[in-house]
Amino acid sequence: MFDKTLKYYNDILKELFEYVLRKYDVNLNNTVLCRPKSGADLRFPSDEYALLRGPEILLTCEYRDGIGQVFTTAPRSFRGRLRDVLSLDLNYIRNASIFHAVMNAVLKHLGLIDKSEHCSGEEPKLCGYALYIELLSKYGQDFKVLHVGYQPSHIEHLSKLLHDNLVVTDLDERLVWSIKYGRPVIDGLLNKYLIHHADIVLLTASSIVNNTAWEVLNHAYMLRKEIVIYGVSASAAIYLLNNSGILKVKHFCPYAK
């Protein structure tokens, strides 16, 4: 049986996406094309990054002149109509990945979002320093962060700023209880308990695609924690949720295009 919170948010996102399509008079019979793409194409600086170490793959979807990308653990090729995308059961990751990548592509085409393609080259490494500067300028050094998802450059820079005030979690069993830049990587299954001790929750966008974000988001929102989602995978979802007023979250993804 699927979690009620998961179903609620997935149903809401479908309704919000369909509303946008109708508002902008988009023909639901228009087609989209999706295909998996190797992370090696992005020329990341090290194999510490999720797309190179696995199991996540970059799924790329095209709609007119819009390109949308997401991280997913269940990639598959897809060619179909927008109405077919709206009929997908989002409780399954293979369908949710297509849905979010298509949303990114369509909203980029419509000019509603400006970030729908993953950064490349040295940019993921620069992202960590950009996050360090942004948090330091806004909050100083006296705050606690729960960083959900291991992004090497983020942890490298934030560990220097926050030390023991940085808690890192991940669901990848190969990472759990390892030490990264002086910080232990804690099992992501403990997120809802760790939220209580954080001022800011930094949440990987791919968790929205793989259906593990909603319990964390719901819990953090009820506890009035500041929520920042990082990564390109959830660009469209963040736009829709923020504009509907259902959730208010910040998006950090400085080098996506």
Q: Give the % helix.
A: 25-40%
Secondary-structure-based class equals alpha/beta
- The total domain count is 2
Low-confidence stretches: none
Number of distinct beta strands: 11
CATH class of the largest domain: Alpha Beta
Shape: globular
Multimerization status? single chain
| Rg, nearest Å | 17 Å
Secondary-structure element pattern, one letter each: HEHEEEHHHEHEEEHEHHEHE
Keywords summarizing the entry:
single chain; 257 residues; alpha/beta; Rossmann fold; seven-stranded mixed sheet; four-stranded antiparallel sheet; 39% helix; globular
Describe the fold and architecture.
- This protein has 257 residues and is an alpha/beta fold.
- It folds into 2 domains: 106 residues, no CATH class; 130 residues, Rossmann fold (3-Layer(aba) Sandwich), CATH 3.40.50.
- The protein is 39% helix and 21% strand.
- The strands form 2 sheets. The protein has a 7-stranded mixed β-sheet with strand order 7-8-6-5-9-10-11, sandwiched between helices.
- Strand 2 and strand 3 form a beta hairpin.
- Helix 5 packs parallel to helix 6.
- It is globular, with a radius of gyration of 17 Å.
- The model has no long low-confidence stretch (mean pLDDT 92).
Helix-strand blueprint:
Elements: H1 4-23, E1 31-37, H2 50-53, E2 57-63, E3 66-72, E4 78-81, H3 82-86, H4 93-109, H5 123-139, E5 145-148, H6 152-162, E6 166-170, E7 179-180, E8 183-187, H7 191-194, E9 200-204, H8 206-209, H9 214-222, E10 226-230, H10 235-244, E11 250-252
Parallel strand pairs: 5-6, 5-9, 6-8, 9-10, 10-11
Antiparallel strand pairs: 1-2, 1-4, 2-3, 7-8
Helix pairs in contact: 5-6
